[in-house]
Design brief:
two-stranded antiparallel ribbon, 42% helix
Length: 175
């Protein structure tokens, strides 16, 4: 038993040494994003490819969240700030709520409490979550103006947010 008392802190310390690489933004080399159709939290229809092929021609961020996620609130606030700051440069952020239909009211209250005004897409059957291979929460994906996946990150440490914003600025400058 006393070996476990020693072993567990060692495992925790070793695990934390891998966090910077595990949660760092990843630049993806031109992978076309999976298409999907869903409803918004307000009950409107949304089709990704229709939106991407629309006249706006914007860089799109999809962020996957759930109300029980400890770090999702901080991430959503960060993405709200990015949306407010870079909207005029062609950025559009969509949140993907992965909770069940019975949790819709909880999601609305959660977002209101955080003062998040981003559009929310529903994924109660986790079809979108599976097609984007979401490994944890929050997970965020940046899609360029032509529908290619360019940046992906997991988590919301200050280092991850700084690197993501730098990569996003570069992505926004590409016509």
């Amino acid at each position: 038993m006393r070996y476990f008392k020693i072993l567990i802190p060692i495992i925790i310390i070793i695990s934390f040494s891998f966090l910077p690489t595990a949660f760092a933004p990843a630049k993806l080399g031109g992978q076309k994003v999976p298409d999907f159709r869903t409803l918004t939290l307000d009950g409107k229809s949304f089709a990704l490819m229709d939106w991407l092929q629309g006249p706006d021609n914007r860089v799109l961020i999809l962020t996957f969240f759930t109300t029980w996620c400890e770090f999702c609130g901080e991430d959503l606030k960060f993405l709200q700030r990015l949306q407010d700051q870079y909207a005029d440069q062609g950025l559009r952020v969509f949140c993907v709520f992965t909770g069940s239909l019975s949790k819709i009211n909880a999601a609305k209250k959660y977002l209101e409490g955080l003062k998040i005004e981003l559009p929310v897409l529903m994924d109660h059957k986790r079809v979108i979550t599976k097609s984007y291979k979401v490994a944890g929460f929050p997970s965020t994906y940046a899609i360029d103006r032509e529908g290619f996946l360019r940046i992906r990150y997991l988590g919301c440490s200050e280092d991850v947010k700084t690197k993501f914003e730098g990569n996003l600025k570069n992505l926004l400058t590409i016509p």
